[in-house]
Write a structure and sequence with these properties.
Elements (H helix, E strand, L loop, with lengths): L2 H7 L5 H9 L14 H4 L23 H9 L7 H24 L1 H4 L28 E7 L8 E6 L8 E3 L9 H16 L14 E8 L5 E7 L6 H16 L10 E6 L13 E5 L3 E5 L2 E5 L9 H15 L4 E2 L2 E2 L5 E5 L5 H6 L5 E6 L2 H13 L5 E5 L2 H8 L10 E5 L8 H9 L3 E8 L5 H10 L14 E8 L9 E7 L1
Parallel strand pairs: 5-6, 12-13, 12-15, 13-14, 15-16
Antiparallel strand pairs: 1-2, 1-4, 2-3, 4-5, 6-7, 8-9, 10-11, 16-18, 17-18
Helix pairs in contact: 12-13
Family: Belongs to the class I-like SAM-binding methyltransferase superfamily. RNA M5U methyltransferase family.
GO biological process, one term: methylation
GO molecular function: RNA binding; tRNA (uracil(54)-C5)-methyltransferase activity, S-adenosyl methionine-dependent
């Protein structure tokens, strides 16, 4: 069923009612205790913010499995894009109003009352994604029982393991997924159905074939990564099935996918890094390449890269301007100078795109392969003022940041952590390094643990928490829509002192 067509004619839901009810989000932050610090009082909210106060979609027999999956993966697909942006803008303003309420003490004096429209700094209009459909450059497809009960079904889940009602539904109809990803998923499903091996649905029950990840770039190159549980198979037996997989995608029916890279990872863990269990290149090129703001970037099998390349250019352009707001003079840009500290730097995209405006870039990243990519990316772009270090930020940064105290021409920090936010020791190090006058925080979930980071960066000095440096103040926020048809977006927040 084509959801694009259904969207225009579906009588199941009213767009306007859905949008209005979504905007009546419940208060995410409340407490009856006034004798604790702001950071202690705050607890992360539910991840279903957009459903709060909303009439749930009816689950009747006439709602197809495809629609149910779309409601899970792309919950806003029934809304127009303008309505999606309006919803996201209001939600980001609500989150930031709550931050302002915490910092002003309003939540201490009236902990049960919402603080809305209380913004003490500007929030710019959300920047839209240049691409709205088929924008994902990375998709992971699971293997489990399908609607017909076939355990060798490749798609995405509807239901929960807690209820014992997981159904794997093909993703051919999802608006955010490109056709190439859907094609690889269909071919992988055909392959495992031909295979003599069973799928690995639960590790303790046996089986071997697991997820497949598909990555593409703007040039149309495609990488597939197949995950495999060896169970009790010998290396020689595993080699036989790797050969079958390779033959299927290079010479057999799967050759229609025209893969540029085929990787294989065998592991007894749910997720593991390249260092824990190497990605084995069965065919093609070891890396993919993507261009952002005129720079070329190498992407490894497990490296992080924003899933929407077109919107990533909008995001990184915004981050670059906030990190180093150079001005036009005499037909060219003036160099801001100073040092940029890039925490959670990934493959070095932010540091490299800002590098021409500063004297030095220092990046810190946990994943070693991403650090290798970052170093390669700096070299291939002839960027000579970037250096990248591997390790946990909470281990590397506290000992290293003291060396930056006497950085000439200023020190700016940019952080782009995962949804879990920054470790408390990282926040301490940034807060206590007084030479950092400007900090740019990029968050994909500002109403999660990132909110605790915001509060600890901006609260009054707290000896008990070892937050002794001068407080930051939020001065500007810019939402960027990276994920059309979903309730998520990126928030770029500028802190200054």
């Amino acid at each position: 069923m084509a959801l694009a067509a259904t969207c225009s004619r579906s009588g199941l839901f009213s767009k306007r009612k859905t949008f209005d009810s979504m905007s009546k989000t419940c208060l995410l932050f409340s407490s009856n205790h006034t004798n604790v610090t702001l950071a202690d009082r705050w607890k992360p909210p539910s991840n279903t913010w957009w459903r709060k106060g909303t009439k749930k979609y009816p689950r009747t027999d006439h709602v197809s499995w495809e629609e149910r999956l779309a409601d899970v993966v792309t919950p806003l697909w029934r809304l127009s894009y303008d309505e999606q942006l309006e919803l996201k803008q209001k939600h980001q303003e609500r989150i930031l109003s709550q931050l302002c309420g915490h910092l002003s003490g309003a939540f201490q004096s009236q902990p049960s009352s919402p603080v809305l429209n209380n913004l003490s700094f500007p929030v710019l209009p959300i920047l839209p994604s240049p691409v709205r459909d088929g924008y994902r450059n990375k998709s992971m497809f699971s293997v489990n029982r399908g609607i017909d009960g076939n355990p060798k079904t490749v798609g995405l889940y509807v239901g929960t393991g807690r209820e014992g009602k997981i159904v794997c539904v093909n993703a051919d109809h999802l608006l955010n997924m490109p056709e190439k990803h859907k094609l690889v998923a269909r071919c992988y499903q055909d392959f495992i159905r031909l295979s003599s091996l069973e799928p690995c649905l639960l590790f303790h029950t046996g089986g071997h074939w697991r997820e497949v990840t598909v990555r593409t770039n703007t040039e149309g190159h495609t990488m597939a990564v197949v995950y495999f549980h060896p169970q009790t198979l010998t290396p020689e037996e595993v080699a036989v099935h790797k050969a079958e997989l390779l033959d299927y995608f290079t010479c057999g029916p799967g050759s229609v996918c025209q893969l540029d890279s085929l990787y294989f990872q065998e592991s007894t863990m749910t997720r593991c890094t390249h260092e824990e269990s190497p990605y084995q290149l069965l065919y093609g090129q070891p890396h993919m390449y993507e261009e952002v703001l005129g720079f070329k970037f190498r992407i490894s099998a497990d490296a992080f890269f924003q899933v929407n390349q077109a919107a990533a250019e909008v995001l990184y352009g915004t981050v670059r301007h906030l990190c180093a707001p150079s001005t036009e003079e005499g037909g060219g840009r003036t160099k801001v100078g100073g040092t940029l500290l890039d925490v959670c730097c990934g493959t070095g995209v932010i540091g490299i795109t800002v590098s021409s405006r500063v004297d030095r870039v220092i990046g810190i990243e946990l994943i070693e392969q991403a650090v290798d990519d970052a170093r390669y990316n700096a070299a291939v772009n002839n960027v000579l003022n970037c250096e990248f270090m591997s390790g946990k930020a909470e281990v590397v940064l506290p000992g290293f940041i003291s060396q930056l105290s006497y950085t000439s021409r200023g020190l700016t920090a940019v952080v782009n952590p995962a949804r879990a936010g920054l470790h408390h020791r990282v926040v301490q190090a940034l807060r206590n390094q007084t030479s950092i006058r400007r900090l740019v925080y990029v968050s994909c979930k500002p109403d999660g643990e990132a909110m605790r980071n915001f509060i600890e960066l901006c609260c009054e000095p707290d000896q008990q928490k070892k937050l002794i440096g001068e407080a930051f103040s939020p001065s500007l926020a810019v939402p960027v829509d990276m994920f059309p048809h979903t309730p998520h977006c990126e928030l770029v927040l500028l802190f200054e002192r």
